[in-house]
C-alpha cells in the first residue's frame, strides 16, 4: 500500500505542478491577508477610521484592535470564512477535474488501487491547504511588522498561530465534503452547488444560535467571528467536524471503489 500511495502521490503532484489553480488559490490567500492588513491600518488611527466612514466601522467590527492579537484573530477569521471557499476549491478541483477533463478512466486504468488514488488526493489536498495557511501567516507577519503593531510576544504569536492552524485544520476537514460531491456528481458543478449551499447554511444556522452544533459553522466560531461575547464551540462541535471529515473521506473511497466508471 505504501508503494501504491507513493506512486499515486507523484502522479497527483505532477498534475498540481502543471496547473494554475495553486497559483490562483495562493493569490487569493495573499489578497485576503493584505485586506486584513488594510483593516488593521485603518484601526491604528481612529480619526482615519472616522474619515473613511462605513469602511472604518466595518474594519472595527472585523478586526477588533490594531495589535498582534487582532492580526492573528483576523487571520483565523479569514481561514474560517474565506478558507472554506478556497479549501473547497482545492478539493473539488482535485476530484472534479478527473471527470471534467475525462481522465477518470485513464486514472483508474493504472496499476494502483483506487483507494490509493483517493488517499493521495486527500493527503495532497491537506498539504495544499496547510501551505496556503502558512502563506497567509507569512503575509500577516510581514504586514504586521510593516505596520509596527504593538503587543508582540512569543506567547501571543504561538497562541495566535495555533488558533489559525487549528481553524485551518477543521476547515480543510470540511473540504472533504466537496471532494465527495465532485466524485458523486462527476464534475465541478455539483460540488460548487454543495459549496455555496453549505456556506449559506453555516451563516443562517450560526445567526439563529445553533452554529456550535453545525460542522460548517464550527471553524468560524472557533476563530471568533461571532464576537468576544460568544463562547467558542465545545468538544462536541469539533468532534462533529472530525467525524464529518472522516465519513466523507471514507465515503469517497468507497464510491471510487464501487462506482461504475464505464459511463
From TrEMBL:
Instruction: Tell me the domain of life.
Output: Bacteria
A Pfam family cross-referenced in the UniProt record is ABC2_membrane_4
Which keywords accompany this UniProt record?
Answer: Membrane, Transmembrane, Transmembrane helix
| Residues spanning the membrane | 21-43, 74-95, 116-141, 161-181, 188-214, 234-256
Q: Which residues form the signal peptide?
A: none
Please report the name of this protein according to its UniProt entry: ABC transporter permease
Protein species of origin: Kocuria dechangensis
Please name the taxonomic classification of the source: Bacteria, Bacillati, Actinomycetota, Actinomycetes, Micrococcales
Amino acid at each position: 500500500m505504501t508503494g501504491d500511495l507513493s506512486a499515486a502521490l507523484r502522479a497527483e503532484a505532477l498534475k498540481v505542478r502543471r496547473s494554475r489553480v495553486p497559483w490562483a488559490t495562493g493569490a487569493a490567500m495573499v489578497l485576503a491577508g493584505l485586506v486584513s492588513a488594510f483593516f488593521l491600518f485603518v484601526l491604528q488611527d481612529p480619526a482615519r477610521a472616522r474619515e473613511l466612514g462605513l469602511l472604518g466601522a466595518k474594519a472595527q467590527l472585523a478586526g477588533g484592535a490594531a495589535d498582534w492579537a487582532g492580526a492573528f484573530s483576523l487571520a483565523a477569521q479569514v481561514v474560517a470564512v474565506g478558507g472554506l471557499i478556497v479549501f473547497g476549491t482545492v478539493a473539488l478541483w482535485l476530484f472534479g477535474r478527473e471527470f471534467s477533463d475525462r481522465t477518470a478512466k485513464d486514472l483508474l486504468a493504472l496499476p494502483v488501487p483506487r483507494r490509493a488514488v483517493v488517499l493521495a488526493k486527500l493527503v495532497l489536498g491537506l498539504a495544499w491547504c496547510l501551505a496556503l495557511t502558512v502563506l497567509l501567516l507569512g503575509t500577516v507577519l510581514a504586514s504586521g511588522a510593516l505596520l509596527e503593531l504593538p503587543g508582540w510576544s512569543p506567547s501571543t504569536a504561538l497562541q495566535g498561530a495555533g488558533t489559525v492552524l487549528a481553524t485551518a485544520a477543521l476547515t480543510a476537514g470540511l473540504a472533504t465534503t466537496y471532494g465527495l460531491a465532485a466524485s458523486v456528481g462527476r464534475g465541478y458543478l455539483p460540488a460548487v452547488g454543495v459549496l455555496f449551499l453549505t456556506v449559506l447554511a453555516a451563516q443562517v444556522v450560526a445567526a439563529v444560535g445553533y452554529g456550535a452544533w453545525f460542522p460548517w459553522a464550527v471553524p468560524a466560531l472557533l476563530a471568533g467571528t461571532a464576537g468576544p461575547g460568544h463562547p467558542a464551540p465545545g468538544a462536541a462541535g469539533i468532534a462533529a467536524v472530525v467525524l464529518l471529515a472522516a465519513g466523507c473521506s471514507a465515503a469517497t473511497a468507497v464510491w471510487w471503489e464501487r462506482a461504475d466508471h464505464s459511463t
